[in-house]
Amino acid sequence: MPESPRSPRFGANYTPTQGWFHHWLDFDLDAVRADLDSIAGLGLDHIRVFPLWPLFQPNRTLIRPRAVEQLVALADAAAERGLDVNVDGLQGHLSSFDFLPAWTQTWHRRNIFADPEVVSGQEEYLRTLAAALADRPNFLGMTVGNEINQFSHDPHPDPDRISHEQAASWLERMIAACEAGAPGKFHLHAEYDAAWYQDAHPFTPAQAARIGAATAVHSWVFNGTAQRHGRTGVATEHHAAYMIELARAWHTDPARPVWLQEVGAPAPHIPAEHAAHFTERTIANALDCADVWGVTWWCSHDVARELADFPELEYSLGLLTNEREVKPAGQAIARIVEEWRDREYAPAPRTTALVLDTGDTVASPQRELCGPGGAFFEAWHRLTAQGVRPAVVLAEHEHDKEHLAARGITATATPSEVD
Question: Helix or strand or coil: residue 393?
Fold first, then answer.
């Protein structure tokens, strides 16, 4: 695992301008290079890349060599522009669309987390992608998949239900497969916020905070936060920071990095004319938290209007237009990158912590109190509105003087005590 950087990393989730992620069907390296030029022009230092799993592994025993070669070519083109690359393996789910190979569906319907043959095929796929990139200096590592936890529980229309023990075992095996392909790289997994906010969800905060090289946070304010608190509400502008502090409560390694791997300004909750302000406030508040590895904005380029059936907000999330023109949020990111270029990242300790009790550290059966409208969520943001800069501490550590001292915490409060 790479050492925590002196300054945070800034990047973008790469959404190709030609064909969106379907570009792998008609891979055009010149178009990719032009996209990467526009990303590098913002001063960013890395991208997150998304192979489509059914296109790369259309059969359980066929991982297409040409597709892997194209992925390596993309990584090499990024290196030429000074961009490091993280690769998400199991796609999985992207922007409301599911991408699962035929050998897991319909007549071959099998649980993607529990079926032995499917899991073995996933391991070989992740190992193959990691191994193909292992010798590239700009290859950061693998993310197991993009929010693949959404396949495991409600509200997915056809979930592959598993226990939290099965989820942990599956994650351990997937991370081990990435490590086997590219030893020593920055391998991790990433879930959407049901892992933090949904009771009984099989993917848990403890898994997110303890498996893999870093804890990934995906912060989206369309989850009820902006609807409840408005576009400039404290909870809206601090949602990413809140999730980072929530994640840190479960860490057993006090120096474990947190990667704000997805965050964006979704319209209409964040109107286009306010996207730059939201971007600036979100990043400033996130970097007021310790141990943040970096911020990776969703996304690099807008989705082309010629593509049908996306939720409306998905078309306008880019830092750049589909014609590669810089948008106000992109201009804000460029300013932030420049401001941080020679700036030391050393946020002050958060000396007051709000005590969180989810019922059990491992399974966390009572997580809804952490989500928008929940007692803990609302209390944390009331403290923030008072200028307190709260951390989060699990109830089991509330009276653990050694744990509190290691984190610089000198005072604690419970949600019921917050005015």
Answer: strand
Could you tell me which residues come within 8 angstroms of residue 310 by beta carbon, excluding any fewer than 6 positions away? 95, 96, 303
β-pair partners for 391: 353
The span from the first CA to the last CA of the chain, in angstroms, equals 42
Print the domain residue range for 16: 9-340
Rounded CA Rg of the chain: 20
Average pLDDT, the chain: 96
Q: Is residue 347 part of a domain?
A: no
Rounded Cα gap, residues 108 and 113, in angstroms: 14
Taking the C-alpha atoms of residue 91 and residue 288, their distance in angstroms, rounded to an integer, is: 32
Q: Are 220 and 95 in contact (CB under 8 A)?
A: no
User: Residue 359: helix, strand or coil by DSSP?
Assistant: coil
Residues 234 and 382 in one domain: no
Strand partners, 301: 320
Residue 204 lies inside a defined structural domain of this protein: yes
pTM for the model: 0.96
Q: What is the pLDDT of residues 363-385, one digit of tens each?
A: 999 999 999 999 999 999 999 99
